[in-house]
């Protein structure tokens, strides 16, 4: 089953969430849809669409003003949490070590972490993608438990620029081999960065592309639903 993660980032209100869930709940599809919403929108009635958060505190409940713990996320009914998104790594200086701790905390709370990895444009241009991704992957994943990987080249996020099919296939194959080497070959590997209804078909049949993480195009049903159709 292919997986589609919609990452709303710092966008959306209750009306927009309700209307998106309504549209998604009416859909007949084999794609597993996970809507990753801001904390303020996590809580709600159960539906067939899975809900995820976009970050998790490093700590359990306690004196950590402003932090949202794993237990709090679980309390809302959410089942997933994005960790180590490139925007968190960039704007909040999240290191692989922090990402690993957050992923571990997610698993401890029975949330499935969606662990993001991706190289910068400079690393891409200097042919360092493979070594950077390998290191990020091995340093960001938890020691035990199941997770999802989202490979998103940082230079593809929000830019409208995507890697070629061959580049994508090479990195996904490498991620798969690494995961296989540690007995985690069943881990879904998602691709992301400027995915939309015009390019989804190009990437969905690449071996070891098990789905997408979509930012901008996930905000409106007019742009999100056609991607789901292309994934069937
Ligand atoms: P984008 O974002 O689809 O808007 O490029 C993807 C992401 O950041 O997950």
Could you explain the architecture of this structure?
The protein has 232 residues and is α/β, with parallel strands linked by helices. It is built from nine helices and eight strands. It has helices spanning 14-25, 70-75, 86-91, 96-108, 121-125, 129-140, 165-181, 200-204, 221-231; strands spanning 3-7, 32-36, 50-53, 80-83, 112-117, 148-151, 189-192, 211-214. Strands 1-2-3-4-5-6-7-8 form an eight-stranded parallel barrel, surrounded by four helices. The radius of gyration is 17 Å and the shape is globular. The model has no long low-confidence stretch (mean pLDDT 97). The site of 2-phosphoglycolic acid has 13 residues, from β8.
SSE map:
Blueprint: E1 3-7, H1 14-25, E2 32-36, E3 50-53, H2 70-75, E4 80-83, H3 86-91, H4 96-108, E5 112-117, H5 121-125, H6 129-140, E6 148-151, H7 165-181, E7 189-192, H8 200-204, E8 211-214, H9 221-231
Parallel strand pairs: 1-2, 1-8, 2-3, 3-4, 4-5, 5-6, 6-7, 7-8
Bound molecules: 2-phosphoglycolic acid (PGA).
2-phosphoglycolic acid binds at residues 7, 152, 157-158, 192-195, 213-217.
Q: Please report the total strand number as a whole number.
A: 8
Round the Cα radius of gyration to an integer and report it.
17 Å
SS summary, helix count: 9
Estimated share of beta-strand residues:
15-25%
Cofactors and ligands present?
Answer: 2-phosphoglycolic acid
Question: Given the helix and strand composition, which structural class is it?
Answer: alpha/beta
| Low confidence ranges | none
> Helicity level, as a percent range?
25-40%
End-to-end separation in angstroms reads: 9 Å
